[in-house]
Amino acid sequence: MATTLSYTHLFSFTEAVFKSIGCSDEDATLATETLLAADLRGIDSHGVARLIGYVRLWEAGRINPTPRVGVTYETPSTAVVDGDGGLGLVVGPKAMEVAIEKARQVGTGWVSVKNSNHFGIAGYHAMKALAYDMMGIAMTNASPLVAPTYSLERLLGTNPIAVAVPAGDQPDFVLDMATTTAANGKLEIAQRKNTPIPEGWAQNADGTGSTDPNAVKNGGALLPLGGATGSHKGYGLGAVVDIFSAVLSGANYGPWVPPFVAFLQPSANPVGEGLGHFFGAMRVDAFRPAAEFKAHMDNWITTFRNARAVEGQHVLIPGDPEREMSGKRLIEGIPLLDPVIKDLETVGAKFGVKL
Amino acid sequence: MATTLSYTHLFSFTEAVFKSIGCSDEDATLATETLLAADLRGIDSHGVARLIGYVRLWEAGRINPTPRVGVTYETPSTAVVDGDGGLGLVVGPKAMEVAIEKARQVGTGWVSVKNSNHFGIAGYHAMKALAYDMMGIAMTNASPLVAPTYSLERLLGTNPIAVAVPAGDQPDFVLDMATTTAANGKLEIAQRKNTPIPEGWAQNADGTGSTDPNAVKNGGALLPLGGATGSHKGYGLGAVVDIFSAVLSGANYGPWVPPFVAFLQPSANPVGEGLGHFFGAMRVDAFRPAAEFKAHMDNWITTFRNARAVEGQHVLIPGDPEREMSGKRLIEGIPLLDPVIKDLETVGAKFGVKL
Questions:
Q1: Is the pTM of this model over 0.90?
Q2: Which end of chain A is less enclosed by CB atoms within 10 A, N or C?
């Protein structure tokens, strides 16, 4: 069963919760906008369903609600941002602003972030660049759930990569993908339904391929993109995300990335501070006049969209499904499953905020 | 059957061929070094086996042996390089030098290239940055052989992405991957052996999955990374490579990318000039002191390499197999299949160069 709440209703509630844990008005608004971007775009696993998780991390003293986010190291086109243990939902947008400002100055800007927490969906951060006629790039490392090719140990997160590219008359191109075959949220759905998962999504504790939706829970691991026949590519991409996000910034990497769930303790011997992100902004007109670029981008998009397709299907442009979902949910509201509603009521009761 | 030739022997021969088509001494050396990097690293499909292909393109008037490669547009951290129709084997390294010089100045450098040709293996170009304590990135678009998810048309190339990261005591990290499940070269091997190909590599002309090694030849297409269950991710990555390499520079993109084989004509209505590449260089010390970065990179590498693994296997670091192969082939020589030897003899005879 699901209850549908309007975006504005959910926004007010979530904002009030972030204020209750001590966020400034400005940060609470920013965190809410970032978090609910996931719900709007249909990536329900990364949206308000995680609000209770963020609150529990704060209760465990692992989120600083009043971080002093700042640049600690820089060149004209690069910076390292220290998130001061803040919400990734707040640290992320502030770091992306630094990348955009650098791009304004010298054509591109590249920011690696340490001492942060989970930042919602990568696509939201990459899309920030679009308003400035820039391409946006966003990555983050995440709790270790993924086994590199041949590994029995979980050493990487689902480590997403997002790339946003502005177009002219056509809607923007927005790629936002985990570097695993399937996101953990899809396993959770299969667990609830008790249905087997496809080959290539996960492995058992002994490294054999699994169709058991509980495989990861039982000591197995998610598989990198490419699954059974080519997981070395997904492993390589996930590794690049980890290195750019954390080895470059001084955050924790690999198995040391702090878990999102508050009941698991972070490593007692961390190799860095918090978790890491990586952001990029490239001005389109640092390469060619923006109008020229956009005309060709429109041509690229319409060529792909209008390609001959398999019966009953059509070729999508990355970002199409999420944009359509966003338009729909802004009007019709956001459906929330009963367990999510229950979690939100629990959080609301804690702070005297009514859902 | 195979004949083994020493690297230096093959180098002299290849260099003489490039001089014979009109390359300057300097460009012939550069082109040879770039091309043979593929043979050394064990990526036989992209090495000297393609020399005859480059010569045929030159005969068809589609390669300029004396290009004036230059920057046509720039900001402090970006440039567009015009390859003037030259060999990608020459244009690529020159464009990467521009990226490295920009990185020296402002921390990072990003170069999009138009009017070029095939550039060999992406990994070679990315690795150029390592000597300067920089991370290197290289991408290229390529002849359309790949169908986006649901498409019956081939709109993308195998569009590789390479990322090279320097380490300290450990060998460098070098990811070099096509954004398809399998490279076309693997299909060619299966064709010769007349063995079926795994699910997820290719589709038939009607869009159904195929295990026929001749599927692509017969109007089918290669599948993006992710194959049967997640090709939208590989499609998205291949699309980003196409956009960064060509829409950004003014090269041909999508179905307009000129074919490598001389018997197929380029589009009569191109949307840009030649094919496109994209290069990046990021100074490690634009983010943190290089020694610090390298110490953590060594820790990253040893952690992954020493992870508990599936019986009889171990976890590899991207670049391990190619580096080992390179060491071996420098000493033992490069094995070449009989059809390749025959092609080289044909090319040699044309110019009076003895193999």
A1: yes
A2: N
Q: What is the DSSP letter of B170?
A: S
* CB proximity A81 to B under 8 Å: no
Sign of CA dihedral B112, B113, B118, B121: negative
Q: What is the mean pLDDT of residues B126-148?
A: 97
Q: Which one of B204, B210, B243 would you mutate to disrupt binding with A, by most A Cβ within 10 Å of its Cβ?
A: B243
- Using alpha carbons only, what angle is made at residue A69 by residues A66 and A72, rounded to the nearest 5 degrees? 145
Beta carbons of B193 and B175 less than 8 angstroms apart: no
Q: Does A75 touch chain B (CB under 8 A)?
A: yes
Beta-carbon count within 10 A of B299 CB = 18
Nearest CA in chain B to A297: B247
- Give the tokens for residue B141: 């678009």
Instruction: Name which of B76, B226, B314 is nearest A226 (Cβ-Cβ).
Output: B226
* H/E segment holding residue A70: strand A70-75
DSSP string, A221-286: EEPBTTHHHHHHHHHHHHHHHHIIIIITTT---GGGSPPSSTTSPPPSS-SSSSEEEEEEEEEGGG
Burial of B79 (0-12, 13-18, 19+ CB in 10 A): buried
Distance set, CA B119 to CA A289, B50, B123 (Å): 26, 11, 10
The 10s digit of each residue's pLDDT in B279-303 is 999 999 999 999 999 999 999 999 9
Q: What is the pLDDT of residue B229?
A: 67
Alpha-carbon span B141 to B161, nearest angstrom: 10
Amino acid of residue B96: M
Nearest by CB to residue A75, choosing from B80, B237, B286, is B286
Neighbours of B61 (CB within 10 A): 9
* B310, two tokens: 């599936």
Domains and CATH numbers, chain A: 1-65+323-355 (1.10.1530.10), 67-179+225-289 (3.30.1370.60), 181-223 (3.30.60.50)
A280 in B contact zone (CB under 8 Å): no
Say which residue the tokens 């046509």 belong to. B72
What is the secondary structure of A279-331 as a DSSP string? Answer: EEEEEGGGTS-HHHHHHHHHHHHHHHHTS-BSTT--PPPTTHHHHHHHHHHHH
Verify whether the Cβ–Cβ distance B225 to A229 is below 8 Å.
Answer: no
- Residue of chain B minimizing CA distance to A154: B307
Assigned token pair, B32: 């040879």
Q: Does A314 touch chain B (CB under 8 A)?
A: yes
The Cα A278–Cα B269 span in angstroms is 39
Contacting B residues, span 3-62, partner chain A, CB-CB under 8 Å: none
pLDDT of residue A149: 96
Say if strands B202-203 and A202-203 run parallel, antiparallel, or are unpaired: unpaired
DSSP strand pairing (A108-116 vs A78-82): parallel
Q: Kindly state the average pLDDT of the residues B13-31.
A: 98
Which residue on chain A is closest to B152 by alpha carbon?
A309
> Which chain A residue is nearest to residue B278, measuring alpha carbons?
A287
Residue A304 to residue B227, Cβ atoms within 8 A: no
SS3 (DSSP) at B135:
strand
Q: How far is A145 from chain B (nearest CA, A)?
A: 14
- A-interface mutation test, from B72, B163, B247, most A Cβ less than 10 A away: B247
CB pairs under 8 A between A and B: 242
With a cut of 50, list the residues of chain A below it in pLDDT.
none
Closest CA of chain A from B80, distance in Å = 6
ipTM value of the model? 0.97
User: What SS3 state is found at B91?
Assistant: helix
CB–CB contact A150 B80 (8 Å)? no
Q: Is the sign of the CA dihedral A87, A88, A91, A93 positive or negative?
A: negative
Tokens at residue A224, please? 């990198």
**Burial environment of residue B305 by CB neighbours within 10 A (0 to 12, 13 to 18, 19 or more):** middle
pLDDT score for A10: 98
